[in-house]
Each structure stands twice: as C-alpha cells, then as structure tokens.
Amino acid sequence: MFSFDLHKRKILTVFLLLLFMWSLFGVHWQEGVMHSSGIGTAMEIFAAMFTPDLSLDILYLAAESSWLTIAYATAGMSLALVLALIIGILASGVLASGKHSRSFMKGSFRGVLGFMRAIHELVWAWLFVASFGLSPYAAIFALAIPYGGILGRIFADMINDVPEEPIQALRAAGASRLQCLFYGYLPSVKNSMISYTMYRYECAIRSSAIMSFVGLGGLGYQIQLSLDDLQYNEVWTFLYFLIIIVVFIDGWSNMLRRRMAQ
Amino acid sequence: MSEQNIIEMNQISKNYERKIALSSLSFVVEKGELIALIGPSGAGKTTLLNLLATILKPDGGELIIDGQPIQQYSDQKKRAKKIGIIRQQFDLVGQLAVIHNVLAGRLADWGFFKSFLSLFIPQEKQAATLALERVGLPDKLFERTSNLSGGEQQRVALARLLMQKPEIVLADEPVASLDPARAEDILNMLTKLAKEEQQTVIASLHSVEYARKYFTRLIALKNGELFFDLPADQVTDKQLQELYQLKELN
Q1: Which structural domains are found in chain A, ordered by start?
Q2: What is the pTM of this model?
Q3: pLDDT tens sequence across B121-138
Q4: Cα–Cα nearest to A108, from A122, A124, A120, A92
Q5: A173 and B105 in contact by Cβ < 8 A?
Q6: Is B85 within 8 Å of A176 when comparing Cβ atoms?
Q7: CA B110 to each of CA A110, B92, B107, B127, B156: distance values in angstroms, whole numbers, following the listed order
C-alpha cells in the first residue's frame, strides 16, 4: 500500500515537470519578456540603491514615518495577540469536557479564525478606511483581525500538539480543564508561542508599511509619494529604514529566544 | 474484614476488538499491600492498571475501590484523593519549575484562583519543600524540570504523589527508562514512602528480581489471565520460567 502511494507520487512529480516544460512554449520569447523601456527604469531604481537621499528633511520624514509604522504594527499586534490567545485556546478544544462539545468548539472557533485570516489585511484596511475614514484605528483593526486569525490558528495547533502524558498525569492528580491549561498546555507551548509571535511581529511591520499605501501614513505612504515623483533616492532611504526596523526586531526575537532556552 | 479490602476485582474482563486483553480476573487487595504485576509483554498489565485508574472501562465484571463501585469515582477530584498514578518519566511538565510540578499534586484541592496565583507566588511552599526533601531533592525547587535527569524527574513525580496523598498508588513501569542503580533507588523510595504513608501500591514491572526484592505480593498475568498470585517469598523459579516461556511450536 505504502510503496504504491510512493510510486504514484513519483508519477505526479514527472507529470508536473512535463507540464512546466510545456508551459515554456507559451512564452513569446522574441517579443521580449520585459517592456523595452522597463530595463532603463529598473537600472535607474537599482542605481539609486547606492545613493539614498540622506538630507535632513528626508531623514526626519523617514524617522517620523518609521515611528508611525512601528506604532501601527505594535498596537495591531497587541490586539491580535489578545484575540489569538482567547480564540486560539477556545479553538484548541482543550477546555471542552465531552467529545461532542469538543468537536463543536473546535469547529466553530476554527471557523471564526479562518474567516479572520481569509481576508487580507489590505482588504480589511480598505473596508475600515471606507467606514472609519483615515484614522489610526482603521490601520490597527486591519492588522489585528487577520493577524489574530493567523496567530490563533497556530496557537490552537501548538496546544493540540502538546504530548498527552503530562496532561493525563495532571488529570489523574485531580486537575480541572482550566487548571490543566495553566499547568500543562500553556507552559508547554509558551516558548514557541513567544517566538512565533515575534516572527509575526516582524511580518506586521512590513504589512503596516504596505498598508499605508491606502493613505494611512507611514513608510509605505512615503515610498509611494516618492515613487510617484520618480525620486528613487528617497525611496531607498525609506526602504533602508524599513530594513533596519526588521533587522532590529529579528535581533530582539533572537535575544528573547536565547534567554528562554536557558 | 471487607473494610480492610481496598480493591476488589470480580470477574473483570476487557476486550480490544476481537483480542481478549483480560478475561475474568478476580483478586482482592488489602490496605497497605505492596503488589508487583509481572508477566510477559502483552499479558494485560497496563490494561489492568488503566482499568484501576478509570482510564478504561471494563467490559464485564465489577470493580470495587474502598467499598464503592468504580463508577462512583467519575469525578476526577474525588478520584485523585483515592488513586494516584506514576508512569515513566514523561509524566511531568518539563517547562515548569520543579516546585509547580510538585504542587500540581494539590490541584484536586485547590480552586482555580489559588492554583493560578500559585504559578506566580507558590502556595504551600513549605509542604512542597518538605516533599522534595523526603525524595532527596531539597535544592532543586526552582530548577526547570526538563533540566533534571531521568531519575531526578521520577523523584519529582514521587514528591507530587506525596502532595496528592492518594490511598492507592498505581505505578506503570515506573523504572522502565532508568539504569539499574537509579531504578533500585526509585523503587526503594516508592515502597518506603508508601509504607510511611500507609498507601497501597500496585506496580507493573519487567524485572522479576526487583519485584521480589521490593514488593510483598506478586500477581502474574499471562495472556490476560491470572497465572499465579502469591506472596513474594513463595514464588519459585520454575513458576517464573513457565510465566515467561514462549509458546512452543507445534
């Protein structure tokens, strides 16, 4: 049975490879894959990489927009974490007592989480800007909902993957479901939860930058304005600020992980 | 007389699908007995312990714990006061500090608020310290449990049982993953503490040598049936040989 499945997988791999090679015939090579003037613009943009605009005005603007981007991401992520903890724990089903109530809880709360993350943060941003106008709350909610959905789903999966033996031992010692949560499940997954949340925080910074394209202010908004003015040097200044923030958060999360491992 | 009997098993049977795990098993355990369950792999030792721990339900027969049918112990807080369990070392929450794993033995008596608070300000710390002293780990109170060795973790599990104070201790292969020196140390401690606390112990063991050395009564299972049930000093080598003998090919 097993070898048969393996065999079938190999056939699928060959089939997909053939399909890919066949698709190459669909490309019109002689007309050029890129727009003829596109190469020139691309060269200009990448040349500007080495000469970012370092004038005081732009640096000040970049710092201010970075602050806005970080603030949106942090506020959105904090709200997402609260949502994810509550809904994620419910979606793991460990608080339910019976078999039926457990699968009902798992199904319904996983459905809620699925709905939250099925819609991209940019779309949420459009929806909220349309309803609240250009307020910071639009950005924060737009981030918090899909990120809460993603985090909650991962938290629920982590809790479901906790080994059974220690939990059974706690039950045998007379612990209730809620006591098992705080003495068994949460301590077991705490470290992975923190490190995944830090990784998601890094993603939230990038999302927050992009989201400001809809007009909410922040690094993305400045990048868009500079691009429209063909000021590629300024674009790179903002991009470097974005990179610095992401690298900084990555370093912070590494530090946290190292401390937790002790 | 029946007040002395803490466990009464009457014609207990248990099947998995078509396979018979236990067939009409009957025996009586008196308070304070130290019993070792022995027998080849698949004889039904773990099934028997899981029935006693109410993890499994018997398919037939009756099981009486301290004068009450086992169905009366469906509430786990009530059950925890009667029956405690110790298994291999995977029983503890590795990421918690040792003291919290020990205090987990008190969760049956603690409400939610007290147990939650205890994770930040350990409650009944003195009792936990005392329990750890009795198992010989007085200085490991705030160590992360996963940093302890296998033998030390099993001592922590014993300290948790000391906090829980059940009347019956079920031990499922409690020393299976330990080297001989650690294994003897744990069995010695388990039986010594049980005597001090007047607990009844039923332990499944692979080693007949340990069973004879540390326990007062041996119950041997083979193919889900009682093979013999004798005081430890009356078991003969011939009986043991027959118990572990492989089926002869015809």
Answers
A1: 52-261 (1.10.3720.10)
A2: 0.83
A3: 899 989 999 999 988 888
A4: A92
A5: yes
A6: no
A7: 32, 19, 5, 14, 20
